[in-house]
Amino acid sequence: MKFDVVMLPRMALALSVALLSACSVLPEPGTSTVYLLPAATVQAATDASSSRTQPAADWALQIDTPYSSQLINSQRVLVQPMGDAINVYQGVRWGDTAPVMLRDYLVDAFRVQAPRLVVSNDSSRVFYDLALISDLNQFQVVYGTDGPVVHLQLDASLVQASGKRTVASQRFTAQQAVDGTAVPQVVAAFGMAANTLATQVVTWTLQHPPASR
C-alpha cells in the first residue's frame, strides 16, 4: 500500500496534542503549606540582675547563620514523638531553613531592642566590631508526658573582629508548651520560644561590648 507522506506532519501534530492532553489530566504533585516564623515581639532589653533598661549600643554587630546538623538545616518542621526518634510534620514546611530563619529573627530582635546598634548578617559584607557565631542544636517539637513542647537550643559566642578573639560564650535554651496539636498552634509556640531566646541573646550581647568601646 502506498503511504501518503503528506500525512506524516499532521499525524505527528495530532499525536503531540494527544500526549499533552493526557499529561494535563495527571494528578499534580502534593503541595506543602509554608509557614513563617512569627515576627519578634520583644521590646527593650533589660538587665537580668536589676531589670533596668540597657543603654542602646552604638557599635556594629554581625550575626552569622548558625551552624546546625543536616537534619535541622532544612525546611522541615521537626517533631520528636518519643525517645530519640525524629519525625516531620507532613504537608508543611518552613519558609526557609531553620538556621536562616533564626538568624533573621535575631537581626530583627536586635534592631527592635537596640536601635543604635548597627546589625547585619553574614551575607552583607559590611564592617562590624563583633560577630555572633553559634550552633543551633535544637529546633523541634518534643512530646513529653504533658504534651508537645517546642525546644530551642543555641550555643553562641561573640568574636572580636580585630584579632578574632572570643569575648564571651553562652548556651541559650527556650521551651514553650504548644497550646494544642494543630500545626498553626505549633508554629505559634515556635514564635514564642524564639522570642524568649532572642531576648536572652540580646541582653547578654549588650553586656559584652567590644573591648575598644
What does the secondary structure layout of this molecule look like, with pairings?
Elements: H1 7-24, E1 33-35, E2 60-63, E3 78-80, E4 87-88, E5 92-94, H2 98-113, E6 118-121, E7 130-144, E8 147-160, E9 166-177, H3 183-206
Parallel strand pairs: 1-5, 2-6, 2-7, 3-7
Antiparallel strand pairs: 3-4, 7-8, 8-9
Helix pairs in contact: 2-3
- Percent strand equals 25-35%
Terminal Cα separation, in Å? 95 Å
- Summed over residues and divided by their number, the pLDDT gives a mean of 83
CATH topology: Rossmann fold
Query: Which series of helices and strands comes N to C?
Result: HEEEEEHEEEEH
Q: How many domains, as an integer?
A: 1
Poorly predicted runs: 1-28, 45-52
**What is the CATH architecture term?**
3-Layer(aba) Sandwich
Architecture overview:
The chain is an alpha/beta fold. The chain has a single domain (32-206), classed as Rossmann fold, CATH 3.40.50.10610. Helix content is 27%, strand content 28%. The chain has 3 helices and 9 strands, in the order αβββββαββββα. It has helices spanning 7-24, 98-113, 183-206; strands at residues 33-35, 60-63, 78-80, 87-88, 92-94, 118-121, 130-144, 147-160, 166-177. The strands form 2 sheets. Strands 2, 3, 4, 6, 7, 8 and 9 form a 7-stranded mixed β-sheet that branches. A hairpin with a 6-residue loop joins β3 and β4 (87-88). α2 packs across α3. The longest helix is centred in the last third of the chain and has 24 residues, at 183-206. It starts with 6 loop residues before the first helix and ends in a 7-residue tail after the last helix. Mean pLDDT is 83; it is low at 1-28 and 45-52.
